[in-house]
Amino acid sequence: MATTASRPQDVLDALAEERRARQGNRVWRRLKAERKAFIGLFFVGFLALVGLLSPIVAPYDPDDDDFGLFQSPSIEHPMGTDSFGRDLFSRILIGTRVSLTIGILAALTALVIGVALGLVSGYYGGWIDSLIMRFIDLLWAFPVIILTVGMVAIFGAGARNVVIAIAIAYIDDFARVVRAEVLRLREEEFMVAAQSIGAADVRIMGRHLLPNIVAPIIVQATFAVGLGILAESGLTFLGLGVDPTTPTWGLALNEGRDFVRRAWWISVFPGVAIVFTVLALNLFGDGLRDALDVRGVGDDADEGA
Questions:
Q1: DSSP letters spanning 78-106
Q2: How many CB atoms lie within 10 A of CB 29?
Q3: Per-domain residue ranges for the chain?
Q4: Which of 24, 118, 229, 255 lies at a CB distance of 3.0 to 4.6 Å from 179, suitable for a disulfide?
Q5: What is the tens place of the pLDDT at every residue in 96-129?
Q6: Does 1.10.3720.10 match the CATH number of domain 21-60+77-304?
Q7: CA 8 to the chain's CA centroid
Q8: Radius of gyration of the chain from Cα atoms?
Q9: Region at 87 (left for phi over 0; alpha for psi -120 to 50; beta for the rest)
Q10: Is the pTM of this model over 0.70?
């Protein structure tokens, strides 16, 4: 009986794998035609490499304050020095790692929690859906900056608490996207077939639903990283971010706001770094969204089968 019962599930799993393979091939063809995605990916990869190698490529110790106050950009100090006499170029390089790490960790945390809530909410529906979505609506009601400031004010500053606060603020985005996709896929033939042979709910969500909604999750994650970097910079600018001794872009902005007329470079260079990083992430996410064609890739792949 066990062997007989397992055969329909094996066939269904094989069909699901074949369907995902067709989708993957079609997505790759579309991705190669999307220049925006590759341009954004190039800049994001470059920034990740800079962050990874920043302790090696930084010309000076970011905390070394022996270079004189408010030195304008020069060959020796390409981005000048700050109000403490520290090399701004070295601090921005080190800050790349810190800001990217916080943005990525916050996005991943929000992704894990939001995807789980969206899957359960969309799959089960009923009172479970209502309960989860009321919680999501509660998060949605608060502006991101207000919610993150409130969370940091409650739990205290520091990198860990900043990551948690930003993640909580963006859980609702992932949950809404995943729930909408689950509701769309719930009535598909492969879902009906999986339920008809008695597949467990966890197996259906893990092997049939989740692989088919990876595309919108990835797209949302790319935008969430950029938004996380902006949120961290805003919190640090307000004095509610990471430890004041940790070099970040937001901290550099905060330190330079009182010297804009005297030393414009202290605020301009970290501001430019934030703008270009978020722009690159959004460019990559926008191109990736077009390539994945969240609403049509699966249907197109099925039609071409």
A1: TT-B-TTS-BHHHHHHHHHHHHHHHHHHH
A2: 10
A3: 21-60+77-304
A4: 118
A5: 988 899 999 999 999 999 999 999 999 888 899 9
A6: yes
A7: 38
A8: 23
A9: beta
A10: yes
